[in-house]
Amino acid sequence: MKFTEEHEWLRVEGDLVVVGITEHAAEQLGDIVFVELPEEGTTVSKDDEIVVIESVKAASDILAPLDGEIVEVNEALPDNPGRVNEDPLGEAWFFKMKVEDMSALDDLMDEAAYKDFIG
Amino acid sequence: MSELERTALYDLHVELGARMVPFAGYEMPVQYAPGVLKEHLHCRAAAGLFDVSHMGQVVLRPRSGAAGEAARALESLVPVDLLGLKPGRQRYAMFTDDAGGVLDDLMVARRDGDLFLVVNAACKAGDIAHLRAHLSDSCEVVELTDRALLAVQGPGAEAALAAHAPGVAAMRFMDAAAFDSAFGPLWVSRSGYTGEDGFELSVPAAGAEALARAILADPAVRPIGLGARDSLRLEAGLCLYGADIDTTTTPVEADLGWAIGKARRAGGAREGGFPGAARILRELDAGPARRRVGLRPGTRAPMRAGTPLFAAQTGGAPVGQVTSGAFGPSVGAPVSMGYVPVDLAAEGVTLWGEVRGKRLPAEVSALPFRASTYKR
S-adenosyl-L-methionine among the record's keywords (chain B) (predicted)? Predict the structure, then answer.
């Protein structure tokens, strides 16, 4: 699993990359009450704001971690946003993307580096 | 920036795992480990303990010794009937300014020889200066800085508190009374700001932590932070000073006209006689131009404070704006309050709130969003 400084995790699944947010991020955000996902088929560039999540406290964006295309979104989340707090690393993934350059994953943090990053 | 103040319960909050944040000059618990959503639901299902010691506790002591003198004096600053307030009863009130705006909202309880006021933390210095500037001839204005203020709210509140002050069980909503306790003399009102039955307890600071621990020893009671306090009061349709009411809103616009008793209205025994009376009495008679309403967003997206409101899905200028908005845990959907022109203020009217550049529907809805459970 790889991690971004925006507290996303990325897991390679065949030729796709599954993206979610980390436990640390979910805990910091507090109870998630709203999730708005991008449309499947959307072409995205790194750092595009593609998902909106709102917790009881505030709204935040999830950025595209890499260049690519959104091929699948987790349709279960908008109706059950609380899953993000319950299972952020598992069931509550946000989207799967086809990444233009898989080698770009190598530049991201591994778990040990992410742990250092969040202190 | 000046140092943040701490309440008598600071160490207990930290011990209980609270996330502490700056609020109105104090370090206050915004949430504990369960988080805002679970704390909110727990308060409605069982009971919650809140530290509201940041709020101001003020005694208005009449120099003549007759409590009626303090009531008469305070009536010159609020549009509420206080001479009609019986000993042992409390009323909601607001300080108004000359333009009819709201300087702060407060609770006023009549005791045998004086009035006991609870004012907002962010406004208390201004309120006390205001009271002293206008009422010093007739009253001594005493800020109680050596007392904490706790709230116990929810269906389990009565049992949790009655274990330590049995007399509270006989109180009704907005009753206020003194009790002796193992934690020092308590001043208790059967009130709160969650829409739930419950109590607010003024306790000597030295006894506050022991009282809080004793109440928390009841398994029904959990500590609740400011985050859930805000969502609870929003579902209950109660105004947050600085968000839903301020100097730019009148009590009538804020739909708080119910707090203005007959005696203070046109034709009443003590008509007017408070700051901004001309405008407020006119609005009571002819109706205000705009009014605070409840709003139920049509999607799951919360419409938060500042969201502009439109009459149509496209075009036009904003007709109003949201002043409080969040996900309502007990409602199970987002809820908001805001000001709209009276011709758009009827229940069922569809308005449009602009969220992240998109206009989303919101229906004008009755307040409160969730019926109160006060013991009347």
Answer: no
State residue B21 phi and psi, 5-degree precision.
Answer: -135, 155
**Which residues from chain B sit within 8 angstroms of residue A81, using beta carbons?**
300
Q: What is the CATH number of the domain that holds A39?
A: 2.40.50.100
Q: What is the ipTM of this complex?
A: 0.87
Per-residue confidence (pLDDT) for residue B2, from 0 to 100: 67
Q: Is the pLDDT of residue B49 over 90?
A: yes
Best mutation target among A23, A29, A31, A53 (most B Cβ atoms within 10 Å) is A31
Q: Does A56 touch chain B (CB under 8 A)?
A: yes
Give the DSSP H/E element, type plus range, for residue B339: strand B333-341
Q: Is A115 on the interface with B (CB under 8 A)?
A: no
Number of domains in chain A: 1
- What is d(CA B78, CA B309) in angstroms, rounded to the nearest whole number? 31
Give the per-residue SS3 of B267-294. Answer: CCCCCCCCCCHHHHHHHHHHCCCEEEEE
Question: Is residue A12, in this structure, part of any structural domain at all?
Answer: yes
- Indicate the average pLDDT of chain B: 97
Task: With a cut of 80, say whether residue B35 has pLDDT above it.
Answer: yes
Task: Name which of B226, B69, B86 is nearest B135 in CA terms.
Answer: B69
User: B332: left (phi > 0), else alpha (psi -120 to 50), else beta?
Assistant: left
User: Is residue A113 one of the residues assigned to a domain?
Assistant: no
Cα-flanking dihedrals φ and ψ of residue B32, to 5°?
-110, -175
B324-365 residue pLDDT tens: 999 999 999 999 999 999 999 999 999 999 999 999 999 999
* Residue B134, min C-alpha distance to chain A (Å): 40
Q: What is the pLDDT of residues B255-307, one digit of tens each?
A: 999 999 999 999 999 999 999 999 999 999 999 999 999 999 999 999 999 99
Percent of all residues in chain A with a pLDDT value above 90, rounded to a whole number: 97
- Å from B174 to nearest chain A CA? 30
A38 in contact with B, Cβ within 8 Å: no
Domain, as residue range, for A83: 2-101
Answer whether residue A114 is part of any domain.
Answer: no
The alpha carbons of chain B give a radius of gyration, in whole angstroms, of 21
Q: From start to end of B35-136, where are the E strands?
A: 47-51, 56-62, 90-96, 102-110, 115-119
Nearest one of B70, B190, B200 to B142, comparing CA atoms: B70
Distance in angstroms (rounded) separating the CA atoms of residues B268 and A28: 54
CB spacing of A33 vs B327 below 8 angstroms: yes
- Is residue A22 in a domain? yes
